[in-house]
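YM 10:42: Tryptophan--tRNA ligase sequence, as discussed on the call
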Amino acid sequence: VPRVLSGIQPTAGSFHLGNYLGAVRQWVALQESHDAFYMVVDLHAITVPQDPAELRANTRIAAAQLLAAGLDPERCTLFVQSHVPEHAQLAWVMNCLTGFGEAGRMTQFKDKSAKQGTDRTSVGLFTYPILQVADILLYQAHQVPVGEDQRQHVELTRDLAERFNGRYGETFTIPAPYILKETAKIYDLQDPSIKMSKSASSPKGLINLLDEPKSSAKKIKSAVTDTDTVIRFDAENKPGVSNLLTIYSTLTGASIAELEQKYEGKMYGALKTDLADVMVEFVTPFRDRTQAYLDDPETLDAVLAKGAEKARAVAAETLATTYDRLGFLPAK
Ligand code: TYM
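YM 10:58: structure's back
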């Protein structure tokens, strides 16, 4: 059975619609056909300062949302990154294999550090993609379900895996990104030229799944479209409408062509009103399920403990092989 691995940061509390449509939805589908490993990446979260109590709470909230979205601990391995110490251990090895310039070319780092200045940027943020490389290689993942913004990190993973294999002998599976074209990039509702993101989007441009459903409906209704009147998918000339059609299509299973037909001759307002209803129908039970998992932290923690145990078994084996290939003297 092919293996998949992916991760999500716990920093925002609520997942946003881009996280869900771009990644988490695929995670749920892939647990049926793949040996799936999914984690909440708290080690990645501390690359920027975190309040400890908030980080702890948000880690549980992230796990609860993953279960609410449909991850089934019987069908996948769900865990918290820091529960598996091998991530930090393999990350060190990968750090030593990465060129300084190579790491400096990662665009996410360049964007973030440019915004906050290098003195306020941690070395951890610089090596963040290399930790992600370790995450993926530890599990010998074949595929990595993510949104478009993570493609470069998966490419780096392939490069480093090939480099290690070439230097020390076949050790790591070369992973491929698993990025669905339709939902690779969900756009900001107010500015459809940028991706929806917790850092760059304005509150009105961003749908947080755990927000009040009414507020999310309002954001859909006030989404930016264009001065044309035709409801048609055209990402280049009609990015706002196209984004709404993508969201509508993915949440309901109706094809874009079906939706174009349904709204032929209708105004943007009709599309938005219906999509607002679709959104409410989606987020309302999602929030309830998330809350139910959070109301029972013992069970939630037990799920994560079991996941960590399963993950460690795989991770420890890969790390042991890696250390051996590197020439580290065994401890015994
Ligand atoms: P993170 O937490 O920023 O985002 C989680 C997932 O959501 C996707 N995503 C989007 N997809 C479509 N449209 C959007 N607007 C949008 N915004 C976010 C992201 O692509 C991602 O798949 N570095 C990763 C976490 C990570 C990881 C890993 C992923 C750590 N280790 C190993 C895969 C494998 C991150 O910060 O994702």
